[in-house]
Amino acid sequence: MSSDLHPNLDPTKMGLGRSIAVLTSGGDAQGMNAAVRATVRVGLYTGAKVYFVHEGYQGLVDGGNNIRLATWESVSMMLQLGGTVIGSARSKDFRTREGRRKAACNLVKLGITNLCVIGGDGSLTGADAFRSEWSGLLGDLVTAGSISEAEAKQSSHLNIVGMVGSIDNDFCGTDMTIGTDSALHRIIEVVDAITTTAQSHQRTFILEVMGRHCGYLALVSALSCGADWVFIPEMPPDDGWEDHLCRRLADQRARGSRLNVIIVAEGAMSRDGQPITSDQIKELVTDRLGFDTRITVLGHVQRGGTPSAFDRILGSRMGVEAVMALLEATHDTPACVVSLSGNQAVRLPLMECVQVTKDVTAAMAEGRFEDAIKLRGKSFENNWKTYKLLAHINPPDVKSNINVAIMNIGAPCAGMNAAVRSAVRMGLIQGHTMLAVHDGFDGLAHGQIEPITWTSVTGWTGKGGSMLGTKRSLPGKMLEEISQNIAKFNIHALVIIGGFEAFVGGLELVQARAKYEEMCIPMVVIPATVSNNVPGSDFSIGADTALNTITATCDRIKQSAAGTKRRVFIVETMGGYCGYLATMAGLAAGADAAYIYEDKFNIKDLELNVEHLVEKMKTTVKRGLILRNENSNANYTTDFIFNLYSEEGKGIFDCRKNVLGHMQQGGTPTPFDRNFGTKMGAKTVLWLTDKLKECYRHGRIFANTPDSACVLGMRKRALTFQPLTELKADTDLEHRIPKTQWWLKIRPIMKILAKYDIKLDTSEHTDMEHVINKRGDLGK
């Protein structure tokens, strides 16, 4: 066992002489296959032997053919499959010491001392118990003569790394567990379908979603579809909720709504711990209001289907991190779980996470519901706060006399409307008058401005495109007219939702403050573009929807090659000069290469890629997928690359070309984009409200400091406001991209998973963190 592993050691030799076993346990979750595939391929890349353990812990106990060597090709075409290809089972045998002794014997005989477990908290707790008993189990096996002293010495220590695979997102310490995003996709597909029929008949629909002990799916679904009410176990409704619920539903109908949606987590309960069932709610609504009410219980539909792009990327990134954590572990390293915080991969001590997860259950049992919400983590708490603000408060009678204008700029993208809806409603809740500006800066210049009300944004969360209308025009040549309309309509603050044009347009307005005093108002740019190229944010609204569209299309394209064999597809993606979509879709769809502007390539690289595909055609995997960002190179166009591959592959493979085009900007927004847009819109208006108080002097608003015009962006682990003028220095204005982009660091993962002989940068070492530190004083 190498205990002196250094992060700068050659990663292709880290695993020499080591063996890793990977198993999936407990309930299945979409994305588990991506994690298995990455663990196998990165394990092999490091020089280690990798074994599949079929049927979870039961396979570990039974041994024999259940523990098999994995090869590179054996994980091909797994990425887009739901469930777990290697099988999962809940094992009674493993719960007994005798069962664990058999499992230990099977591992020792194969020289396996590194175990990667993908499952929920029960599966991971079992793994930790197995590890703590390891030396005792080996002692028993030596005494019984099942293994020799030499074998016991060789396998004296067992390393454990966990990845959390659970659709409920019920494991503390990680923002998202593998499978949660895909389950949300299934739920939202159903909600969208039900909404159309409910509106036709003016019905109330009660949707029951999974989550026996955790309300994450219910809460995010409610946020993503603008549900009228949500029941979650962490925060039971106040006493007398029946009257409140009926009042809310009747109120919505009185405002002109033709439907009501109520979302119930299967573990929903009242303050005194009694279950709240869908049937109970149906009876209440029917008896008191006489509304035509229907129940839909989603059940195992939520576990099924293809994993979303997010879950594939999450599984792949976690798989890489898990292998590194196993190979870097020493005798003193506690069993750890690899997880996600913001967009950062982190390692956390497994039992700390399990403990906090248990603390949540204890807090709920003791009626400490506020603590339960906080213990779930920042992400859960923010979702709950946003939901409460948007759903539970009626606009005040007293007006603030503040007018906030909202506009969309640049190309349309899915999720823009969700941001507009939440900004409008949050503004109305604050007592502001909200103004809709149609057709971007053109509309602001030509006075296409009108008040927008609570009901006028009903149902916008799930609508694609831009309901306000959007154009790419910049304000530079219309400053005179814009300043006149800001004065005419008495606009006190501006919300600009859009892509790179929104960023540049915002900058132009700030620069115009010196000449036009009307521009001295607080303003916020919310990044919304499929290209994900706005400085100041790691993610833009709309990029996730586009990514899922590309990934789903690539799946179909790859499937079409399964019959014909020996075929290579060249697919062109959008993104301007930003290679985010091509890179992430490459990771999610299992591409062989992704050509982008930021990662320069020449004819030698193209030649290398062709040779790589020629070699690939000699294996059982006889197909290739190449992605090219639309502006990756002015001379190596999609046609050029297609012609080059066609010529060089003659007699070995044939080529096909696909330009995906504007389908990437369309479609209904994914749950991520709906939720992200909703949170961004709400946070923006709350920030502007505070900023307006700061800037109010001598009876008027005057804002000309850099921090009064910001981009709201996701940075690593938090949503932050950053001044537009400060971000300008980090912007390549010619190519419309930020100078530093976080996702470039995960590009090598795509190349390694496609079997390229490159070096994985392990210098950015992920240290073990502590989940306890994140909890503050809670649960004491």
UniProtKB/TrEMBL annotation:
The record's catalysed reaction(s) read:
beta-D-fructose 6-phosphate + ATP = beta-D-fructose 1,6-bisphosphate + ADP + H(+)
Which EC main class describes this enzyme? Answer: transferase
Cellular compartments annotated: Cytoplasm
Which residues are noted in the entry as beta-D-fructose 2,6-bisphosphate-binding? 472, 529-533, 567, 574-576, 630, 656, 662-665, 736
Q: Give the residues annotated as active site.
A: 168
From the UniProt entry, list the residue stretches annotated as the region C-terminal regulatory PFK domain 2.
403-780
Activity regulation: Allosterically activated by ADP, AMP, or fructose 2,6-bisphosphate, and allosterically inhibited by ATP or citrate.
Residue ranges of domain Phosphofructokinase in the record: 20-325, 403-687
Q: Which UniProt keywords apply?
A: Acetylation, Allosteric enzyme, ATP-binding, Cytoplasm, Glycolysis, Glycoprotein, Hydroxylation, Kinase, Magnesium, Metal-binding, Nucleotide-binding, Phosphoprotein, Transferase
Which Gene3D superfamilies does its entry note?
A: 3.40.50.450, Phosphofructokinase domain
Q: Kindly name one Pfam family recorded for this protein.
A: PFK
Region: N-terminal catalytic PFK domain 1, residue numbers = 1-392
**At which positions is ATP bound?**
27, 90-91, 120-123
Cofactor(s) needed by this chain: Mg(2+)
Q: Which positions are annotated as binding substrate? A: 166-168, 203, 210-212, 266, 294, 300-303
- EC number(s): the record gives 2.7.1.11
- Where do the annotations place Mg(2+) binding? 121
GO terms for molecular function, please? 6-phosphofructokinase activity; AMP binding; ATP binding; fructose-6-phosphate binding; identical protein binding; metal ion binding; monosaccharide binding
Name a single GO cellular component. membrane
Q: What binding partners and quaternary form does the record give?
A: Homo- and heterotetramers.
| Family, similarity comment | Belongs to the phosphofructokinase type A (PFKA) family. ATP-dependent PFK group I subfamily. Eukaryotic two domain clade 'E' sub-subfamily.
What is the recorded name of this protein? ATP-dependent 6-phosphofructokinase
Q: What is the lineage of its organism?
A: Eukaryota, Metazoa, Chordata, Craniata, Vertebrata
